[in-house]
Inverse folding.
């Protein structure tokens, strides 16, 4: 699928690249106890947008890969990009689920709230790291063969 001649994948990855780290920052800020109640809804909204954009990028990337034949060194770059994107899909989905549960149970106290906040923080970091790794691999594909 394309929009005005550009593949959908090339357009939607920008939302994933923006909202993945933005959601991760909200997740890390959620670790601060006095900010948790105020940040729960911005966290949920940002991680929801990040998750949807990552999954749309995945499906549009699959269509793009099926429409194009990649060979040689470019095929290895595409494979690396796909492997990292698979990990990103898992991490951002887990991040979203834990964030939703943390927002839902925000009135809890003690170990439950602490454990959920810790999981939100860990998954925020994993999501941020994989967003950067997937984006880097995608950029290597997009700029393959060009000189700086």
């Amino acid at each position: 699928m394309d929009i005005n001649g550009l593949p959908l994948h090339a357009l939607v990855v920008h939302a994933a690249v923006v909202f993945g780290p933005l959601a991760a920052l909200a997740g890390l800020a959620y670790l601060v106890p006095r900010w948790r109640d105020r940040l729960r809804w911005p966290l949920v909204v940002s991680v929801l947008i990040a998750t949807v954009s990552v999954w749309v990028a995945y499906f549009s990337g699959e269509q793009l890969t099926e429409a194009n034949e990649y060979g040689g060194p470019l095929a290895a770059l595409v494979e690396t990009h796909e492997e990292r994107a698979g990990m990103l899909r898992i991490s951002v989905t887990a991040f979203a689920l834990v964030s939703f549960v943390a927002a839902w149970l925000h009135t809890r106290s003690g170990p439950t709230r602490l454990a959920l906040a810790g999981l939100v923080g860990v998954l925020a970091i994993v999501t941020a790291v994989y967003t950067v790794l997937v984006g880097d691999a995608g950029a290597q594909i997009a700029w393959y063969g060009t000189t700086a």
Notes: The beta strands are 2-3, 6-7. Residues 94 and 123 are 7 Å apart (CA to CA). The longest strand covers residues 2-3. The first helix runs from residue 8 to 29.
